[in-house]
Structure formats: C-alpha cells, structure tokens
Description:
By secondary structure, this protein is mainly α. The chain has one domain: Hypothetical Protein Ta1238, Chain: A (Up-down Bundle), CATH 1.20.1200.10. Helix content is about 60%, strand content about 5%. The strands form two sheets. It has a two-stranded antiparallel ribbon. Strands 3-4 form a two-stranded antiparallel ribbon. The termini are far apart.
Amino acid sequence: MKIYTKTGDLGTTALFGGARVPKHHIRIESYGTLDELNSALGLLRSGGVPSDLDGFLMGVQQDLFVLGSHLAAEPGKEHGYLPELEAGAVERIEQEIDAMEAGLPPLKNFILPGGHASAAQAHVCRCICRRAERLVCHLAELETTPPEIVRYLNRLSDYFFVLARTLNSRMGIGDVEWRRT
Length: 181
C-alpha cells in the first residue's frame, strides 16, 4: 500500500464514511490537534518518564487515537468498526490526578511552565490538550460529536498540569511560581 494517494491534492480530505471536507474544516482541525497532542505525548514519553507513570501515558496515547477516530468519522453515519473508549477512562484520569496530588504540596499560587525538561513537555501537552478541547467544543456546536471527548480532554489537561508538577517534584525542582512584578 502506498502512503500517498494524491486524493488530497486539491485541499480536501475524506472522513470515515466517504464524505470529503476541506482540510481546514473544524473536524479536521479537531482530530489533527489530537494527533499533535499524541505526538507531543510521545516526545514526553521518549524523554524518560518514570516507569510508574509511563504505562498510564501509553494508555492515554491509545485513548487519543480512539477519540481521533471518532472525530474522523462522518457524523450521522453508523460506524460499527470504530473502537470505543474504554468505560471509566475519565475516572481513571481522575484517580491518577488524585494519586499524584497526594504527594505534592498544596498549590497556593499560579505556576509558570518549566523546570525539568519532562515537566516543561508535560505543560506543552497540557496546552495542546486545551486547544484540542476548544476545537472539539466548537465542533460540537456545529455537528454531532460524542460528548465524552470533551469530558476526557478537560480532565486530561488537568492531568498534564499535575503530571508536570509531579515530574518537577521527583527531580527535586519546586514549582516556579508566577510573581507579579
């Protein structure tokens, strides 16, 4: 199978189901941003995330692929071949957040992204996740969109924030607090 099809040479792309839409369509922007997040998460994982955190992050990458497949599907058509997000996925994110927060000092100020390189990359993931969430919310105003996608992304961005704090803490780096000058 060739990787290039030439079918997008005129600025359109196909959704699962066959419909063609412009490459700048909000649906394409939405799942493209999930793909960007998945790539940024792959970069974070390649930087040596502790093994007790890495397994969960691999699961998040799998989930992002599932969510992207639903966004890449033509709305209003039956797509029995799409994978489903595992039941309890959002609750698992919440449990991970709670477990990490238990080992962190209470947050008293806004913090700046940074510290250890892995923590900074977790903040990049958080920002991309927030953008994906905004795009999917916009898409949901225009077309049928599975509601669990917004819920998942909302919780996942919180996870990346706490992950960044956790990674810094484990490296012996405190939060970099924002200070009004």
